[in-house]
Amino acid sequence: MRLNVSEIHFSCQKFSLAVPFGFLSIGRLLRQKLFALALLEQKKQTEIISDDFFPEKFTLYYLKSQIGYRSAIALQLAKGQTRSSQEIAEQLVKHLTIPEESDRVSLDFIIRVWEPGWIDFYISDRALALWLQQLPQIFYPTLVRSVKEAIVPYLFSSQYAYARCCSRLRLGHREGLIELHELDFSQPIWQWKHPHPIPFLASGKFQLVRPTEQNLIRQILVVTDALDGNATENWIELATNLSEAILEFERRCRIWGEVKQETPQLSQARLGLIAIAQFLLQQLLQEKIGVWAPAEL
Fold first, then answer.
1. pLDDT of 145-177, one tens digit each?
2. Residues 185, 166: contact at Cβ < 8 Å?
3. Alpha-carbon dihedral sign for residues 189, 178, 243, 2
4. What class does CATH assign to 128-289?
5. What are the backbone dihedrals phi and psi of residue 186, each rounded to the nearest 5 degrees, phi first?
6. Read out DSSP for 110-147?
7. Which helix (DSSP H) or strand (DSSP E) does residue 106 occupy?
8. Fewest CB atoms within 10 Å of the CB: 22, 39, 51, 210?
9. Rounded alpha-carbon distances, angstroms, from residue 54 to 36, 61, 73, 273
């Protein structure tokens, strides 16, 4: 969903979100934080909180140009109030940017407010690298159910994309660019061994900034939010979108040749992104949709 907004004169703010161990969905954490603040705002206005006041009510949209989220929470809270949505947005941001004392790992964001009260959350380079790094290590999918080893015509592109991921990872292992625990991708096991951590950062800057790289990360973000939620999702659509992003990434982003020779850490980071996409796509295909995820075609 593309939203047309005009920027107001409002300086960027920094925001750190303490996260619990084993978190998956950045969207869920943000929604819970916003809900807690919204609850405080509502209690200032009325002593009665309606039954439909719950975190899922506050939709988060995915940003198109960068990795992050857009919230309309201020616009929703402004209904029935004398304050404008702009004033509510600024008040929420003021609360968000108050430092919290915590010994937990934190994710850093840049916040911007747009008229008439949209709040954008841009995930920092460090936070994005941290989230991608820990994602497959704390994601424990259920045992993959038994499925028939067959190509499904309407899901061929997804099955093909999965096989391509496996092929690229095996090649990276054989050429010594990365090291895997095993070359068997039949089970939902995180096979990446080395390098650790995956070099998503180079001199403190996130390496994967090309449009196709960012689009694949965005699809990983969408899939993770869906897998971490309780709602019934269109798993076929999610698998298709992730697969299309994988194949476009492979067409546009080189790993071998000069890239491998001159910037091996970039090649490793790209293979790391493929490994994460493969890990999630297998969960979508075999567990959520119930079709074969072929390691080879």
1. 678 899 999 999 999 999 999 999 999 999 999
2. yes
3. positive
4. mainly alpha
5. -80, -25
6. EEEEEETTEEEEEEPHHHHHHHHHHHHHH--PPPPPP-
7. strand 106-115
8. 51
9. 10, 17, 12, 34
- Provide the residue type at 281 as one letter: L
Enter the tokens of residue 138.
């704390």
For 80, the token pair is 């029935």
Q: 218-246: per-residue pLDDT in tens? A: 999 999 999 887 667 899 999 999 999 99
Whole-model pTM? Answer: 0.90
Provide the residue ranges of all domains of the chain, joining segments of one domain with +. 6-123, 128-289
- Tell me the residue type at 81: Q
Neighbouring-strand partners of residue 282: none
Looking at residue 143, the DSSP 8-state letter turns out to be P
Out of 3.30.1360, 3.30.70, 3.40.30, 3.40.1350, the CATH code matching 6-123 is: 3.30.1360
Residues forming a β-bridge with 180: 192
